[in-house]
Amino acid sequence: MNTSRPLFSQVRLRRALNYAIDRPALVEQGRRYTVVNPFNAGAPTDDYLPPAVAGATDFHLYPLNGPDLRRAKRIAGRVRATAVLYAPNLPPWQQEAQIIRRDLKPLGIDVQVKEFPIGDYFTRISRRGEPFDLAMTGWYFGSTDPAQILELFDGSTIRPTNNANYSYFNDPAFNRKLKAVAKLSGAKRYRAAGRLALELGRDAVPAAAIATTASRDFFSARIGCQVYQPVYGMDLAALCLRE
Questions:
Q1: Is this structure's pTM higher than 0.85?
Q2: β 109-116/134-135 pair status
């Protein structure tokens, strides 16, 4: 959600969206296109930190079994607005965009979908001032350090182009807390990051987490010693033949 635009500058509407979206339906679309990208297959989530990241906790803040429209409407209040949703012109993004359009209509939000070639899409949403209210994206993390995920919402990093903070969320208090986490190490770092992830998802709500991706590896019965590394995948050097 683009928090720099009027519609989703309102925390209540960001929170209402998290109750209104149908996460299982969105995840199912990804599963339909695993041939295009095997990482599309995943499981619904409402957490910003995926399970493989240190300090991650399942907080159960928002519904995973389908939308809670009654609660979403109560939080949103009276709304009559239009939201511009940017999406790549490829599956499953096209299908997911239509689900989001359907889900937000009962809240009084008319979603207008604008599709772009994928390269142009990321150029646009990473440009400050681009006129979109909603966008869909994924993130492949390069380590199990929780700070790498939370830094996606660091407002001090926002610049004219090439932004990773697609929500354009800029909260000075959060920025200070994130910098404080960066100075910690070990268990203290992970606990502090977990608490900050809870505050971010519960109180600020700059984004709606939809799914964690899944990695699948197939082996014959003769192969053993499988060791999976969350960032880099299966450790091929560790594999062995069973006697």
A1: yes
A2: unpaired
